Amino acid sequence: MTSSESLIVKSGVVEVNISDHFLVSCELNLKKPKLKPTYINARSFKDYDRNQFVMDLAQIPWHEYFSIDDVNEKLSSFNGHFLSILEKHAPVKRMKIRYRRCPFMSREIKELMKNRDKLHKLARRTKMTTDWENYRVCKQAVKKALRECERKNVQNEIHKNLNRSSMWKVIRNYLSRKESTELKYSRNITELVEEFNSFSRQWELKHQSLLLHF
């Protein structure tokens, strides 16, 4: 019946009425395959120093760009200088994505989530106040159910891990994780582009006025 008897935990016969022969069954001792980790490429701001970054940018001879007539060459030169400084202070690194386990997710909560999503879809389509209210009620019910199940799961895990190190490991797994890197710069992209264009125009006018004096 099998070439690996060591994998069989137990076997038996299931009485069924769909055939003249009963169904032969067995339970195998198999290991769950380990999922491969997910990686992304992103800039690391772990050692980023804003003041040093600005100082290094100030060392670049930006005025030389105004003597370049070809737009593509000018852009290529700018990208080369700017990205080299950026790579020095915030290098691109391969990072592993860590997912937070959710062992307390039950079938009832999943069904509640499906119903919440259906109500949300309905409310967006009809735009009726009653449908939006039904969605909000279901949404709050999902949050409440998740909090309650998580609380019970934490209590069970702590009771199973009574020694100090294991207990703190359980607690840390359920604490909200802080960002490993602090957000150093956050601006509206449109404002940033306009500010950069304004700076470039002022620099070019200043550079041209200096050339007229020579």
From TrEMBL:
<protein>
    <submittedName>
        <fullName>Uncharacterized protein</fullName>
    </submittedName>
</protein>
